[in-house]
Amino acid sequence: MSSSTESPPLPLRGRPASIGDLFWAFTSMALQGFGGVAAVVQRELVERRQWLTREEFVEDWAVAQILPGPNVINLSLMLGDRYFGLRGALAAMAGLLAVPLVIVLVLAVLFSSVSGMPVAQGAMRGMGAVVAGLIAATGLRLISALRQNVMGLLACGAFCVTTFVAIAIFRLPLAGVLLGLGGVASIWAWHQLGRITDHATARPGR
User: pTM of this prediction?
Assistant: First the structure.
C-alpha cells in the first residue's frame, strides 16, 4: 500500500566528475562562444551535461547578472564553488579565461593590421548580428522555465516587457532599472512565497 502513495524518486542530477572535468567543460564552452558564451553555457549546462535544470539556470543566471562583473564569470564561480568549493570556483573561471585569452591576444595582433579595411568592419557588424540572434534564441528557450516561477508567468512577462522598454527604448541606466524593477520583483516574489507558505500551513487544519 505504501508504494502507491510514495512519490516517484527524483531524477539523478549530473555533476562534474572532478575539478579537471569542470575546467575542461568551461574551456570547451569558452571556445564555442565566439561573441558571447551565454547561449553556449545554457545549452551545455542544462541540455547536454545536465548539471542544472532550466529553472536552476534561470535563477543562477539572474543572480549572476545582478552581481558586478561579467555574467558568465559570475556563473562559473557560483557553479564551481557549489561542487568543489574555492578550488572549483577558480578552476571554472580559469577554464573560461585561460585558452581564450591566448587566442584573443593572437587575434588582436592580427586584426590590428586589417582593422581599417571595409571588409573587416563589415565582418564585425555581421558577427554582432549573429550574437544578438544567439542571445534572443537563448531567452526564448528559457521562457518555459518561468511557468514554475513563484511570481507567476503573467508577472514574469510584465517584468520582462517593462525591463526591455526601460532599457532598449527609454535607455534608462541599468543600475537604476535593476534597483527599481528588481526591488519590486523581489517584494512580489516574497509576497507570493508568503501566500504559498500560509496556504500550506492552513491546509492540514482543514
Answer: 0.66
